Structures are given as C-alpha cells and as structure tokens.
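<instruction>
Derive structure tokens from the sequence

<record> Sequence and structure tokens follow
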Amino acid sequence: MSAEALPPLESGEFIAENSQDVKVVQAGVKKAADVIFESLRKGEFSVELWKGAGATDGHELNPKVMDEKAVDWIFLVDTLNFSFWSESEDKKYEVRHKGQTYTGYWSLCAAVNRAMEEGIPITNPGYYAGMTEKELAYLLRSDSEVEMPLLQERVNNLQEAGKVLKEKFDGSFVNCIKKCGGSAQKLLSLVVSNFSSYRDEAMYKDKTVAIYKRAQILIADIWSCFEGQGYGSFDDISSITMFADYRPHVHIR
C-alpha cells in the first residue's frame, strides 16, 4: 500500500466530504443497508451462495472445493476481473459453457473453466507468467462476434502476477495468505504493494486516495469461498469496504 495514500475507508470519507458534483444520499445508504440486512436475516443471501448453492446467475462457475486450487483460481480470475463493458447492449463478449451462455464477469469465469477442462494449466502462475497475447486470446475466445476487450492489458497483468508469485511467494497466492496471519488488512497491503495491477489510486484535491476495488474483491472472494475458515479466516474481514463499480450508474434529479 502506498505510504502516502489514504486507505479505502478514509478515502471514501474524504471524497464524500469534499465532493462538489456528486452527493451520497444518506437515506439511500440506510435503505440499502436495511435491504441487505433483511436478506441476510431471511437466509436469502449467504457465503454458501458463492459456491453456487441454488444459484442460477453464474455462481455455479465458482470453485466448489475449499482447497489451494480454489485460491489460485480466484487469484487468476480477479487479476483479469475488469472492463467487460460492451459498446452495444446487442453485441457482447459471450462464452458458452455446458449449455449456458455467459456475458460480463461470468463469461471470464466460463472461459477459464473451459480452458481447465481442455487441460490447460491456466491457473498456474508458472504458466501465465510467460503467456502471450495470442495465447490468452485463444483461451478467452468468444462465442460471439465480440472478443474480450483489453487483451494486452490482461496479458500484462498476468505476466507481472505470475512472475511476482514465482519470485517472491513460491509460485502460489496461498503463500501470500499465509504471510498475513489471518488479517485482511495485511493481505490487502501485501497485494497492492506487490502487484501493481491491483493498486488503483488517484489524486483527489491534492490527496492520494485508494480505491483498491479488485484487491478487496480478491479478499472477499477468498473469505466467501472458504466460508470464513482456513485460508478464508480473517479476524478483521469487516474492515473490507464495499466496492466501487467501474461502470457508472448515475441518477440525475
């Protein structure tokens, strides 16, 4: 984590207090919190849903077994988890897998699972550290006329991540988790310090603010997959913030 950057929670507070053109409506925040709380109380949402228990929206693509392979799958997918935005709602990047057609984030998950079923070690850092754009284009090939966007940026992310894991963490993200002693904040700091693609920071009113969207999603995914146990046991998981969306949703009055 950059020494000069405000942590995500403090960054959000600073931006909200100083924003001139965008306002957070507190009544809306409370309403959203009430909806989430009621869903949890009724059992309509739980960490079990992450592994696809009763899901029909793509969660069935997530790993089902809580093991080291699941950790490496999550790290790979979250390293590639950005910008699936199509210019047209009628023309999207699509992947068909086991009779289902997926778009957006889930199309990435489907493509990764397809590659694994084809015997390609796509989740192995030793493999993707040397991956080329042509190889990734094949692995993420589309079943529509729209290809995966930003392939070169995705290759750059994979090459860096694979090399860092090989050189510093004995070839697996599992060892990053082990170094953090059950602390989500320590893992967050380790991720953004070692993997530049996860270090989303910006200048706002002369301060460096930290968003750390994908880094926090990475931690939350591990926590959810392992149901708060084993590799997903973090004493301070409640310190992880909600995640900004790269695609703006604006309500103008």
Residues 5-23+52-239 form one domain. The first helix runs from residue 8 to 18. The beta strands are 5-6, 94-97, 100-103, 201-204, 207-210.
